[in-house]
Specification:
about 150 residues, mainly beta, 6-stranded parallel β-sheet, about 0% helix, about 60% strand
């Protein structure tokens, strides 16, 4: 799967309101130079991965909406590599991204700004998983209950 130079705006779904990828671990899925704005998920993320592997490069996420992990959720033995991407103004538990259930994420040269959560991390929620973060910027993220990056059992 390859998605390049696309815009996903104001889409709605239970989860994966823009892109939902499941049982795809062949390491050739890429999302490149794409924009995700104002997508609404009833549960999880504009981009949702379940047992999947994805490269996400030079993408922008802005004000995606959902009660939990409104921008990106990586679950159930998934892997995501994020490079040079921007996450801005998300609100909900784990505002920008969650990595959980024995998954892993490597994030390089990306920015996470103006995330808000009344419950959980204001930027990244890591549960029973692994996160590697290099040259990233976290700015103006706020949580009423947890930190910017919240790692549990990880």
């Amino acid at each position: 799967m390859a998605i390049s130079n696309c815009t996903f705006e104001s889409n709605s779904a239970k989860m994966g309101s823009a892109i939902f990828i499941q049982h795809n671990t062949n390491n050739n899925s890429i999302i490149f130079e794409s924009v995700f704005n104002y997508n609404h998920a009833d549960v999880y993320g504009a981009v949702s991965l379940l047992d999947a592997t994805v490269l996400l490069k030079s993408c922008q996420f802005y004000k995606n909406i959902g009660p939990k992990f409104p921008a990106v959720v990586v679950m159930f033995n998934s892997f995501i590599y994020i490079d040079n991407s921007q996450f801005l103004a998300h609100s909900g538990e784990g505002a920008h991204m969650s990595v959980q259930s024995q998954s892993s994420a490597s994030v390089v040269g990306s920015t996470f700004t103006d995330g808000y959560s009344d419950l959980g991390a204001s930027s990244l929620n890591i549960y029973d998983s692994e996160l590697n973060c290099t040259r990233c910027t976290f700015k103006n993220d706020k949580s009423d209950s947890r930190s910017c990056i919240d790692c549990l059992q990880s």
